[in-house]
Write a structure and sequence with these properties.
It is built from 8 helices and no strands. The chain is mostly helical and about 230 residues long. The longest helix has about 45 residues. The protein is elongated and about 65 Å long. The termini are far apart.
Length: about 230
């Protein structure tokens, strides 16, 4: 009876995909909560547009918006990161014939890390100039990548992929490309973090570019062709 339970428990790909969609949607929504509308003292009582008080209030608002720019950049980074990993997980789930209890728990661990993304993103947004905050964010990326890679390799060992007549080679090619893409991306993230020796802002900018490339590939820089 126990072996029968282990065989069928957690085997629903549809339920796993639905849970994944929900957690990603919540995590993406929580990212924006770190963006706060700036408060400008006496802004509503500054007088007509042509008055000195109004222009002073405009300048203060502009200054606050400029101060918000790093937070906007990190918000974009967090959203791109979650979008990239959502696409990666959904691509994997699409090519699975079935799941099992072990694979489901690997994906639940992956979703646990996804749910923590608003925290590491907010930490990086608040302390962008601190290398420790950047390292924490990078370790989060590393954890997500390794869990996704682990689920791919486990599914291959457990023969959970769709290896049908005539399309087995295509599915194996997709799996190999996905594994290579994860590994190369993680190496590039590590290189970006090493650049924080010169400037953490340089590292954050490079990670944003890597995420944009991942969203636009293969049109710009196809990582899976390395």
């Amino acid at each position: 009876m126990r072996n029968l339970y282990q065989r069928f428990a957690g085997s629903s790909l549809e339920r796993l995909s639905a849970l994944s969609d929900g957690i990603f949607a919540v995590a993406m929504t929580l990212l924006v909560l770190d963006l706060h509308v700036p408060e400008v003292p006496d802004a509503h009582g500054a007088g007509p547009l042509w008055s000195d008080g109004s222009w002073a209030a405009e300048r203060r608002l502009g200054s606050h918006l400029l101060d918000l720019a790093p937070h906007m950049l990190v918000y974009l980074l967090g959203f791109l990161t979650l979008g990239m990993f959502w696409v990666g997980q959904q691509t994997q789930l699409t090519h699975l014939a079935r799941s099992d209890r072990h694979l489901t728990w690997i994906h639940l661990a992956f979703l646990t890390a996804v749910a923590l993304m608003p925290f590491s993103t907010a930490l990086l947004a608040e302390y962008t100039a601190f290398r420790l905050a950047l390292v924490v964010y990078w370790l989060h990326l590393l954890l997500l990548g390794m869990l996704l890679l682990g689920s791919l390799r486990y599914a291959a060992r457990a023969d959970l992929f769709k290896y049908g007549e005539g399309d087995g080679a295509y599915t194996r090619a997709i799996r190999t490309a996905a594994e290579r893409r994860i590994v190369i991306a993680q190496v590039l993230y590590a290189v970006a973090v090493l650049l924080s020796v010169f400037s953490p802002y340089l590292s954050v900018g490079l990670i944003v570019l890597l995420q944009l490339n991942s969203a636009l590939a293969p049109k710009v820089w196809p990582l899976d062709r390395f």
